[in-house]
Amino acid sequence: MSSPPDGGDVRANRPVTVEQFRADLAGRPEALSTLADRVSRNDPYAALPSLLDEEPAGVLLLGVGGARYACEVAASRIRMAGIGAVAEYASAARSFPPSSDILVVAVAVGGGLREVCGALEAYTSHSPIIVLTDAPTSPVARYADVLVPVSPAAAHGGTGSHGYQNALALLLLLGQRLGAPALGASSDLTLSMRRAANAAQDLLERAPTWVPRFAAALESPTGPHFLAPAERFCSAQHAALALRQGPVLASHAVESGEWSHTGRYLAAVSDYRAVLFTGSQYDDRVSEHLRQLQGTFVAVGGTVEGAAAELRYLGDGDTEIRLLTEPLVGELLAAHWWAQRGV
Fold it and tell me: The whole model's pTM is what?
């Protein structure tokens, strides 16, 4: 198989208008509920036992952009089952050698088809391949031994935001099928999806109140930053990506514990503003250092001393609900600044 063409404009994945983006976000609760219903009726990994004779020696997850962020969390979760799992850049020149005991999981959502297809070339006919995609008729589907469509709702509005959330949920489900423990209150991931849908609705309904308050606290010529614990680092990465893609603002993601060793140097020389997705054992240290450096942060999902503002939502003490809900915070902020900038 040959790799598909590049796909043209590098900004092709960006929504056409902020109105489309906002409509996409408004549909987030429905998208999660629909996915939960679909998974409850039909297990997307029902063919997994016939694909794998025994536990894989390793799992290679491939993706581009937000898809790779989701893969990183999934790989971490799968390693908790004692299986060597790694999330790789689809554009990497080399990774695991092709082998029948290496399970390859490719996530093609919102773009990156050329890179993903190029990476899969080496594994075709050598390794079992699962493909998650929002374009099941695209060339990447031809590489799949098991094809897992991301809900059609993911493509609504053209932003890819639902695609990220749905792919993340489906990857968490795959982790469970491979023996990874559930980290939420329920071992039934579909229940977590439905609770996350309720949490998203809660955030959306209260957005007219908290979004302007957060935006005012985070306004800075250097752009806001996003911090999250390692277990949920994808939330910060996806939020920062939303700001780069929509309003085209400089924004970066830093892991909460790492921030004191890498990110705080910028806080010493700039008007540093950050969104802290809480839950790390190092949240208080981030707060202490930021206040010493005259920085500003807002806290999401928990209370941290020194926060300029705080946002709580339904189920924010549950890891799975946090993973499936909190990126919406960054996306709603992106929509706010995008509308202001008119770009």
Answer: 0.91
